[in-house]
């Protein structure tokens, strides 16, 4: 499928009416090979509402500003460690960073 198409993130029923709790395969995936302690930005594709993250090691994400590898953060603004699935409606970029050098992928869905 062409890059830029997004599948809906749905929980659907099988032929017997049982819920299927598996994600459909994504049509749009971004990847970053991070350098240690260097933030990188991912542009959220138009129409995306959900992001599914995966990585080869720990990483941090921030949806409103540049991600940092946090120390003590007491004001609620720390970057999030290893998010899994997030509702990103209204988010235009996602900043990611790691103390190491992981590969991070983000699959996007409507």
Quick structural overview:
0% of the residues lie in helices and 36% in strands. It is an all-beta fold.
Protein architecture, described:
With 110 residues, the protein is mainly β. The chain has one domain (12-109): Jelly Rolls (Sandwich). It is 0% helix and 36% strand. It is built from no helices and ten strands. It has strands at residues 12-13, 19-20, 28-33, 40-43, 50-55, 60-62, 80-81, 85-87, 93-97, 103-109. The strands form three sheets. A four-stranded antiparallel β-sheet has the order 3-10-5-8, with no helix packed on it. A hairpin with a 5-residue loop joins strand 1 (12-13) and strand 2 (19-20). It is elongated, with a radius of gyration of 15 Å.
Give the key terms.
110 residues; single chain; 0% helix; mainly beta; 4-stranded antiparallel beta sheet; Jelly Rolls
Q: Mind sketching the topology for me?
A:
Layout lengths: L11 E2 L5 E2 L7 E6 L6 E4 L6 E6 L4 E3 L17 E2 L3 E3 L5 E5 L5 E7 L1
Antiparallel strand pairs: 1-2, 3-10, 4-9, 5-8, 5-10, 6-7, 6-9
N- to C-terminal distance: 15 Å
- What is the assembly state of the chains in this entry? single chain
In total, the number of strands is 10
Give helix % range.
under 10%
């Amino acid at each position: 499928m062409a890059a830029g198409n997004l599948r809906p993130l749905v929980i659907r029923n099988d032929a017997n009416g049982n819920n299927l709790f598996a994600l459909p395969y994504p049509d749009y995936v971004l990847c970053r090979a991070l350098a240690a302690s260097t933030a990188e930005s991912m542009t959220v594709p138009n129409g995306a509402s959900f992001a599914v993250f995966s990585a080869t090691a720990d990483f941090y994400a921030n949806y409103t500003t540049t991600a940092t590898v946090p120390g003590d953060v007491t004001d609620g603004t720390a970057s999030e460690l290893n998010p899994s699935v997030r509702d990103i409606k209204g988010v235009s970029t996602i900043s990611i960073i790691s103390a190491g050098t992981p590969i991070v992928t983000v699959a996007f869905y409507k």
